[in-house]
Automatic annotation (TrEMBL):
It comes from Saccharopolyspora halophila. It is found in: Cell membrane. The chain crosses the membrane at residues 21-44, 56-74, 86-106, 112-133, 145-167, 173-192, 213-230, 236-255, 267-288, 300-320, 332-351, 357-383, 403-421, 427-449. SUPFAM superfamilies: MFS general substrate transporter. Coiled coil: none annotated. Its main location: membrane. Gene3D superfamilies: MFS general substrate transporter like domains (1.20.1250.20). It is a multi-pass membrane protein. This is MFS transporter. Residues 22-452 form the Major facilitator superfamily (MFS) profile domain.
Amino acid sequence: MAAVADSSNPDSALWHPSRRAFTAGLVLVITLVAFEAMGLGTALPTIVAELDAQRWYSWPLTIFLAASALGTVLGGRQADTRGAALPLLIALPTFAVGLVIAALAPDMTVLLLGRVVQGISGGILIVSLYVLIAQVYPERHRPAAFGALSSAWVVPALLGPLVAGLLTEHASWRWVFGGLAPLVLLGAVLLVPAVRRYGGAPETISSPRRGTVLAALGASAGVVAVNWAAQRETVPAWLLGAAGLVVLIPSLLRLFPKGTLRARPGLPGMVLARGLLAGLFFTAQAFVPLSLTVAHHYSAATAGVPLTVGSLGWTVGALWQGRQRRWRREQLVAGGFALVGLGCAGLVVALPGWGVAWLVFVCWFVAGTGMGIGISSTAVSVLDRSPEADRGFNSAALQISDMLGQAVLVGAGGVLVATLATSTDPAAGVLVLDLVLLIAAPAAAALVLRSGRAQPR
């Protein structure tokens, strides 16, 4: 029987003695996952060059995303039927094994195998932690818990690319993977006491959802196809992407709460909002470095600084929402969309050649703040609305919506920018894309607010 956090306990807080080890383990594990994610992009050119696998450049990222979709569903299913303890305690050492496989990889095939192991275990890990947040922390402290989770990305965002670059240049890219494995195991040790206490099977177990594993495989295949198509400007690739969507949509009908794709008010609307918010933000962000280098002649290093600034804003927003009590979660998510839209408006006047380039640093901090508020608030809202027996399924749906929102919208944005690019200005389509996103953000905010008004008081 799962232990339930007492929301009436005035001492219930992130660093209360009974939760201190779990909070520390949570922050450490997410920090390590973030370091690996931030560092891989820096090391990837060297990796593919050393393994003579330039044509596979995008696959360490794509295969991880697809495997994460599968792991997310499997982790949610196990958490709802057997509790979050077992999947989490399996996922942590398995993630470390995946890091070691990648670190020792003699060729790209073995490296991709390591990324598959990391992706599946990483998906299980995140869902299990979401379920445990609901079990470990009283309801009123969950926003602060998600704020702490987001803050774990700050140091990796600031130092991850630098550390990975130094390791790659002066030691080996293999340390980007292998150096983290022992620390992941340390995180597992910190989490064990709370996992044993809170991570048992739920008191009520929902009926097993048929076809979820098959749907997860379909979603993974769809993610691969959509990402592959987004990275290639050929008719066969686009046809493959369309086929991926054909497989993806019926899979999502099984993996999402009923009514998600129709934006039904309540929990389904929040799951959809998560994907839209992630898709809008990361689509705009994907083309910031391109515009700064092409239109304003920034160096590659300087052009990446706005991404770090956005990460800092994300943390500020996540921590701020953790202290809010008088705003409903729908209002906070709508505010997140509004700030992302404001950031896109700033890009419209900052990124073109005639624009004021320095504004990008301000506007992307604003957009990152909106993400910190909105992403954390969707997670809090979904957990608050989920029966105990469905927390794993709904947390998995939230993560899949996030991943697919990015995959589909970034891919569509890439097609638009590539279509409008010219030989003299490869970033010509970015202005049009940012205008589209600027319009979409307030429309999504209005949708979220309407969803909130439709809910019974």
